[in-house]
Amino acid sequence: MPARKLKEYLDSQVVKYIKIAHSPAYTAREIAQSLHIKGGMVAKTVIVVMEGKMAMAVLPANRSINFDHFRKAVGDQEIHLATEGQFKGLFPDCEVGAMPPFGNLYDMEVYVDEHLREDEDIFFNACSHSELVRMSYQDFERLVNPRVIKLT
User: Fold this and answer.
1) Cα 18 to Cα 132: distance, rounded to the nearest angstrom
2) Cα 138 to Cα 35: distance, rounded to the nearest angstrom
3) Which of 134, 90, 122 is nearest to 108 (CA)?
4) What percent of the chain has pLDDT over 70?
5) What is the percent of the chain where pLDDT is above 90?
6) Could you give the strand order of the β-sheet that contains 131-136, starting from the edge strand earlier in sequence?
7) Rounded mean pLDDT of 78-106?
8) Per-residue confidence band for 82, with pLDDT thresholds at 50, 70 and 90
9) What is the arithmetic mean of pLDDT over 15-44?
């Protein structure tokens, strides 16, 4: 079951979503492959530090962050990957590395790669390395209100 915080939020917003259980997998790419889902539909959440503040970068499992694109889109700020030690305590309801792309639940800005808009649905970790949530991308964007930019 998705972490209580995420589940309660999705339920309170009256959106349709599906929970998908899978064997343990630790990367979005592994999850996509094991469930036979296009890598472009599975979102991975990467924690970055921007000007000293943590933020979420959300991109398709089959892509990597292009920091030049990212910096250009946000005004040439200093951006680098956060270490696990830096963000581990920010998601007490999640397994390390399995945070959902809902920065609004954790007081973090969210930047989403424009490629995730290409599909009707989005899949993402549900605070666990053995569960995904599937929901419409349109609902995701409405709830999170991310900044959609060229990240990859």
Assistant:
1) 8
2) 22
3) 90
4) 99
5) 68
6) 17-21, 131-136, 121-125
7) 92
8) very high
9) 84
Candidates 112, 98, 119; CA nearest to 143 is 112
Beta bridge partners of 107: none
Spell out the domains of the chain, with CATH numbers in brackets. Answer: 4-149 (3.90.960.10)
Q: Is the dihedral of CA 94, 99, 102, 106 positive or negative?
A: positive
CA distance 36 to 63: 17
Mean pLDDT of 23-37: 80
Question: In three state form, how does the secondary structure of the chain look?
Answer: CCCHHHHHHHHHCCCCEEEEECCCCCCHHHHHHHHCCCCCCEEEEEEEEECCEEEEEEEECCCCCCHHHHHHHCCCCCEEECCHHHHHHHCCCCCCCCCCCCHHHCCCEEEEEHHHHHCCEEEEECCCCCEEEEEEHHHHHHHHCCEEECCC
Query: Global pTM?
Result: 0.92
Q: Is residue 41 within 8 Å of 32, Cβ to Cβ? A: yes
> What would the mean pLDDT of 84-102 be, rounded to a whole number?
91
Indicate the average pLDDT of the chain. Answer: 91
Q: Which amino acid is at 136?
A: S
